[in-house]
Write a structure and sequence with these properties.
The chain is built from 5 helices and no strands. The protein is mainly alpha-helical and about 150 residues long.
């Protein structure tokens, strides 16, 4: 669902930017101008480990437990950020129109299928995802394009 992806992306960016801004403010207050570089270094490591690698690794290795733990907070995030996500989608479509690109209102700007396919292909090339599993999941993503006779 585009609301889910948009809300998670928005929330993730807000938290990352806010935490980095606060760290930069704190480090520059304590260390002066050299605090900017240190804050950038520290926050890059913290965001990379605790906001990117660790949660994704946990979710991949404990999918059902992770999904159960985050489902309620994600519902709240979607409820709070959906209006902003809708406004961003309208803004993006308007900007695209200015440049002569007509985006179909029924198509998703945040292309989830392509992101999943890319992650599966990357996982397959690194030997983490077996070919059969990749093909099965990609096939499931294409079910909306199939008809049942």
């Amino acid at each position: 669902n585009e609301r889910l992806i948009g809300s998670v992306l928005l929330g993730n960016n807000l938290v990352n930017i806010l935490s980095t801004s606060l760290a930069t403010s704190l480090f520059t207050r304590v260390l002066g101008d050299s605090g900017v570089a240190l804050a950038t270094l520290v926050m890059t490591v913290l965001v990379l480990v605790f906001a990117e690698v660790l949660p994704k690794t946990y979710a991949i290795t404990n999918a059902e437990t992770a999904a159960a733990r985050v489902s309620a907070p994600i519902r709240i995030v979607i409820l709070v950020f959906s209006p902003v996500v809708s406004a961003v989608r309208m803004f993006v479509r308007a900007v695209l129109r200015v440049f002569g690109v007509q985006a179909d209102p029924n198509t998703h700007i945040l292309a989830v299928r392509e992101e999943i396919a890319g992650a599966l292909n990357l996982g397959h090339s690194e030997g983490v995802v077996h070919k059969e599993d990749r093909d099965r999941i990609l096939g499931a993503l294409d079910l909306s394009d199939r008809t049942v006779d």
